[in-house]
Amino acid sequence: MDSSALLTTFRSDSQRLGVGGAYDNLLRALLAALPRADDWSALVQGLLQQQAAGAAIALAEQGLQRHPEQIELRYLLGNGLRMVDERHAAERELRAVLAVQPTHAGAAASLAHLLRSEGRLQAAAQVALDSLPALPTDAQWRDALAFMRECDDARAALDLARRALKQVPEDGGMHAAAGELALELGRFEQARVHLRRALAMQPQFASGWLRLAAAHRFQQLDEADARLIERAAHASDPSSEAGIAARFAWAKVLADVGAFDQAVPQLRAANAAMRPRVEWSARGFDAFVQRQIVQPAPPPQAQRLGFAPVLIVGLPRTGTTLTASLLARHPEVRNRGELNWLAQLALHVETGGRQVAQMRESATLYAAQLRRDDAPARVIVDKNPLNFRHLGMAAALLPGLRVIHCQRGARATALSIYRQMFAHEDNGYAYDFADIAAFARGEARLMRHWRATLPVPFYALDYTRLVSDTAAVLAELHAFLDLPDAAVGAASTASESIRTASVWQARQKVHRDALDAWKPWAPYLPELLDTIPESWA
Q1: Three-class SS of 296-325
Q2: Of the candidates 154, 164, 220, 219, which has an alpha carbon nearest to the alpha carbon of residue 187?
Q3: Least crowded by CB within 10 Å, which of 114, 163, 214, 244?
Q4: How far apart are CA 502 and CA 385, in angstroms?
Q5: CA–CA distance, 244 with 430 (Å, rounded to integer)
Q6: What pLDDT, on the 0 to 100 scale, is given for residue 493?
Q7: Residue 19 confidence class, pLDDT cut points 50, 70, 90
């Protein structure tokens, strides 16, 4: 039987034969009949596809002894080593492939994802950039840009998008990405230029309407972008994603100019259209809170972090972004923005029965995503407000954890939530005041439980104090985090990437205007007063 026939037999029969004499005999016959490097690669690939990583690694190493120049076989060896978590060896083999063939897409992607999983985001982004060919295809541009965004490098991603637009200047999706990235970086005029181009080519680019509205503080309704948003709000299907987004955006424009009576109908329509699109249950959330309260705390993991982990939590729109941005002005603080790791790891650990290996793996992974491979820092911040749901797990995974709990007036918070079209499904409560109130009550109940039971320092941050006496609150936060006196920058947010709805506000001078911003809405939005109390307590 020739090698081709043996390969076919192996692929069809190896799964059925399993491990044993018949399998060994078939594999031995196959090895004896493999004169070509491509045959070795084909067999190793088949083993990897069958999740037989150990056999694939052994076979690849034998093949490389006969064909040491075979790049594809070395690439497959690197992938097999990744599968068995031999990370250092996998990185060595994948880098060896790229040293010979820098644009090997498979090796670059495998190495970049390996590095990213270890929190080595700068190194991962560099691999992705270095592997781009001189004239990338549209798909290669998009894949590289998506990965750069995963690596949380907005500057490099924006540079990449602008490079791509020189090659494909009429690509609406690339203009959309460039606009969103420029907005994250606070380059508002640049963002508006790209967003307009994107929306002209792709009116169904739903988040584009929200981003365009967020890139302004509108002064008049006859501004060009205001009219563009108004036309979209009136012309688009009110039940479509783009139509809903345009109505949220138009309500924001109207509110900017003080036309609250006109903004309210837009908000009501947008929220009413969103509710059927999301799944959120007050009863389900209450049951989740109860489970968190009654179940025993996960066992703490002993690990040396080398930094103090800090979670900034609370309801959305309570000043979490502002707090993180102010803290990041200290040279020994790194703000990682809103990470989604904690919720994912908590689900992984809980569904797996809190096994020791899972806990250890999750603790290592979360610490790596916080630490990353930039300059080391004394304090590292994850400011995802919804992490309040999993503080028991956070305390177990992150020794030395400290928690900053942001709080703001109930009606100001509820209205600010109601005015947003959130990207994440976890915010499905946001489109009805009764649901917002139920979510807020659950948050307050769960935070009381964490404060009473977790051996973790908590700082209760009052939004009114933060904007009224910023220096004093910041000094208290520095003391809470054991930060030494240092020269604190005045405007670090100019260099930060901000992805939240506070992208405009967090870059402005701290002010008190938002404290009573809900009051002009009240005459036109009586359900706010009817449903939301003065305080969640």
Answers
A1: CCCCCCCCCCCCEEEEEEECCCCCHHHHHH
A2: 154
A3: 163
A4: 13
A5: 14
A6: 43
A7: very low
The gap from C-alpha 90 to its chain's centroid, in whole angstroms, comes to 26
Tokens standing for 72? 């594809």
pTM for this model (two decimals): 0.89
The answer to whether residues 70 and 37 touch, using CB atoms and an 8 Å cutoff, is: yes
User: Tell me, what's the pLDDT at 269?
Assistant: 96
Beta strand 333-335 with 379-382: parallel, antiparallel or unpaired?
parallel
10 Å Cβ neighbour count for 425?
10
Average pLDDT over residues 59-74: 89
pLDDT digits (tens, 9 = 90+) for 110-160: 999 999 999 999 999 999 999 999 889 999 999 999 999 999 989 999 999
Label each residue of 42-89 as H, E or C.
Answer: HHHHHHHHCCCHHHHHHHHHHHHHHCCCCHHHHHHHHHHHHHCCCHHH
Domain 3-149 has CATH 1.25.40.10: yes
402 DSSP β-pair partners = 310
- Helix runs in 398-491, H state only: 410-418, 433-453, 463-468, 470-480
Beta strands 458-462 and 402-407 are parallel
**Check whether domain 282-531 has CATH 2.30.110.10, yes or no:** no
Q: Which of 98, 50, 39, 118 is nearest to 73 (CA)?
A: 39
How far, in Å, CA of 64 to CA of 73, rounded?
7
- What residue spans define the domains of the chain? 3-149, 203-277, 282-531
**Complete DSSP assignment for 331-392:** TTEEE--S--HHHHHHHHHHHTT--HHHHHHHHHHHHHHHH-SSS--SEEEE--GGGGGGHH
Q: How far apart are the first and last CA of the chain?
A: 79
The Cβ of residue 156 has, within 10 Å, a number of other Cβ atoms equal to 19
pLDDT of 24: 60
Q: How far apart are CA 377 and CA 330, in angstroms?
A: 10
DSSP string, 216-266: -----TTSHHHHHHHHHHHHS-TTSHHHHHHHHHHHHHHHHTT-HHHHHHH
CB atoms within 10 A of CB 449: 17
